[in-house]
Amino acid sequence: MKHRRLSPLMIAGLVFAAGCATFAGSAAMAQTKSSQMAGMKLSNDQPIQIESDALEIREQEKKAFFTGNVKVVQGTTTLQAGAMTVFYRGEGSTVTQGNADIEKIDVSDKVFLQSETQQATADKGFFDMSQQVFVLEGDKVVLSEGQNVFVGCKLTVHMETGQAKLDSCGRRVQIQLDPKSQKK
Description:
By secondary structure, the protein is mostly beta strands. It has a single domain (3-91, 98-179), classed as Lipopolysaccharide (LPS) transport protein A like domain (lipopolysaccharide transport protein A fold, Sandwich), CATH 2.60.450.10. The protein has strands at residues 3-6, 32-37, 49-51, 54-58, 63-74, 77-89, 101-115, 118-128, 133-145, 148-158, 163-167, 174-176. The two termini are 25 Å apart.
């Protein structure tokens, strides 16, 4: 299995809801594709704007439920989903005060993530803060930057290392690369 260096996709944008810090190669098809996601960064120095049709906070359960047309914006990155659940921990911490220690964030119902020229779509996803792992899943997970397109069913990104893996789930990973997109 070859490793390919891919241009960055700010998949970690889901963490914005928590208010915390924290694809060019040859055309080939394989059942599993591993690669480096260069430049994967989280930003804690820009304001976060979250919109949804409803917000329910269950302090006893340490959960915040954003439902209906969820939109999260920080800088040039936008996340949209039908629903987002934030799981947090810590005595005295709350999402509303911005001091929550986030454990995990789940998004579902047609997830769309865009950062500058990169986009990702999936049925659902999650970010595990303690493991620093982000996963997008669905019948068809699509990553694109310009004319370069990667299609699979599960994308796993290890945020600390930038290592990414695109799985096929019994089918084949599909890649379409535009030779004009390579830097000279």
